[in-house]
Amino acid sequence: MGANSSLLSQDSSDGSTHPAKLKLGDIPESCVALVLLYLDPPDICKLARLNRAFRAASSADFIWDAKLPPNYHHLIDEHLTNTSTKLGKHEIYARLTRPVRFESGNKEFWLDKRTGGVCLSISSKAFNITGIDDRRYWNFIPTDESRFHTIAYLQQIWWLEVEGEVDFRFPPGTYSLLFKLRLGKYTKRPGRWASNNEGVHGWDIKPVQFQLTAADGQHAVSKCFLENMGCWEYHHVGDFVVDDENASTKIKFSLTQIDCTHTKGGLSVDSVLICPSNLVKDFRALL
User: Whole-model pTM?
Assistant: First the structure.
């Protein structure tokens, strides 16, 4: 007890005893690391700026091993093949929070910085769209509004059919699939971009249908009318569950409105988002 108490007190020149003034830098790195283990990554990074001890402790592998998805080694091996040097767990986490493109750059995944959840986005360029090669019906429009810098825009069509698929090693968990859509488009006016809803029609007659199917038999269908003009929206298709971290999950999805009694047009299709279901509200809040 005497040895430990000497750390908490110090003798002054007049012989009296006063509590020692401990500084943050006096805390052992191992103790700091144990505290950081229970914090979210953004908070760990903030505390790492305090001093040298916190910065060194924040790089401990066991901290970031707990934040990484259980199958992160598959993500590294399959999608970061250009990484020639061995990375620490902190560096791996930081690298995976930046979007990683694959399949000709039309798909990308990343880790959510706060939770470490795996998110995936699929460009409209990767979809099978009926009539996409006929400019009377569809056009690809370059734009900075999309993370892929391109959206598909529907001029007018009788038969709406947009399909896609993805085959990816998701960590175990429950995931949601959403289409990012907008009625209308933005056109460049002198000095500004303006919403253009002139070609929007036919969406108030019958609802569109969204569908997803997993290779293991999971299936979801949802329907809705497209109503809000001029703003992007995430339309929830359905959820699926992943149990095996070592197996690849194959998902097929579609957006259809197959009714030849009327035409529809003026629809912008950006991408499909797949994310942990508990992050859907966060993505919708960003729009």
Answer: 0.87
